[in-house]
Amino acid sequence: QLPTEVTIIEVGPRDGLQNEKAFVPTDVKKGFIKALKAAGLTEMELTSFVSPKWVPQMGDAAEIVADSLTKDSRDIVLAPNRKGIDRVYMTDCKAVAIFVGVSNTFNQKNINKTTQESVDEIVPIIRELKEKGYFVRACISTAFYCPYEGAVESEDTLLLCKAFVEAGADELSVADTIGMAAPHESYALFSLLKKEFPETLLTAHFHDTRQMALTNIFAAMQAGIDRFDTSAGGLGGCPFAPGAAGNAATEDVVYMLERMAIRTNVSLPKLIEAINLVKPHITRPIESSYYQLHPQT
Ligand code: HMG
Ligand code: MG
């Protein structure tokens, strides 16, 4: 039984841009976010409050947030630690994504802590955010494979998810960080998660390194998932996950779903307009199939 409607969580302004080496001007990012919202994307990762030494591209997070919050959207920002959360508290943003890797080595490369150290820091932060009325999204990296450690046990992924759900997380965004999962693995893990966390919003986050993102999304839908993180133009990748390509492209996912009569409420022509706003400022080509066929609106 496939869903009749799917929610797209646009991660282009965050995952999409964080790996771009040349700084994308803050005004361009603001315009990109507005154009994505105009295309109908109502849930979005705007930016991240991480160390500007580690990820200089996200150094303008406060300015982005100040300009981009709107009433009818869920505007999410990422924060890896206490310092990041304190920076979020200085803004009006009410939805926070924390992020942790199942694999220790990846987590150490990404946020300089073991997975357990991150859990110990983040669980009390989630409780605090919930007491203050925030929406909390927990991003689970390397849920299938790690670029350093190889295959990841589903049991370890489940345990990490459980720690955050028990602390009060509203949503789990479960990620194939390096785009290595195959469709049967997507189906298996998301079936398990659906069974284990029936009350939690469950979202799948696929990178498209091996061009299996669309198939993995289809397999996840068969397991009952109806929320997907995607990135306009298929931009993206984690700077600390070598070999990771961009996210599933929003336009390719929307096209597939609309062809299947699954509603997304996203306008493809307006999405192309948004991509064309940011395109002159990024170094990599836009490789999504839909964009190649319809580069202009
Ligand atoms: P650290 O060097 O261990 O931090 O980095 P520290 O606590 O030792 O502090 C060192 C300095 O950084 C201090 O400044 C802190 O104030 C500052 P100094 O005293 O030297 O001037 N600092 C901060 N500044 C701003 N914002 C902060 C912050 N924290 C400390 N939040 C840290 C640890 C976590 C900060 C660092 O490793 C970091 O920023 N990592 C972020 C990495 C990142 O952004 N990765 C990409 C996002 S995750 C992702 O893409 C995966 C996802 O898409 C799902 C998937 O696909 O898998 C979500
Ligand atoms: Mg990602």
Automatic annotation (TrEMBL):
UniProt-listed Enzyme Commission number(s): 4.1.3.4
Alphabetical list of InterPro entries matching this protein: Aldolase_TIM, HMGL, PYR_CT
Keywords attached to this entry: Lyase, Metal-binding
Metal-binding in keyword set: yes
Gene Ontology molecular function, alphabetical: hydroxymethylglutaryl-CoA lyase activity
Pyruvate carboxyltransferase domain span: 6-272
Cross-referenced Pfam families: HMGL-like (PF00682)
SUPFAM superfamilies from the UniProt entry: Aldolase
Family: Belongs to the HMG-CoA lyase family.
Name the UniProt record assigns to this protein: Hydroxymethylglutaryl-CoA lyase
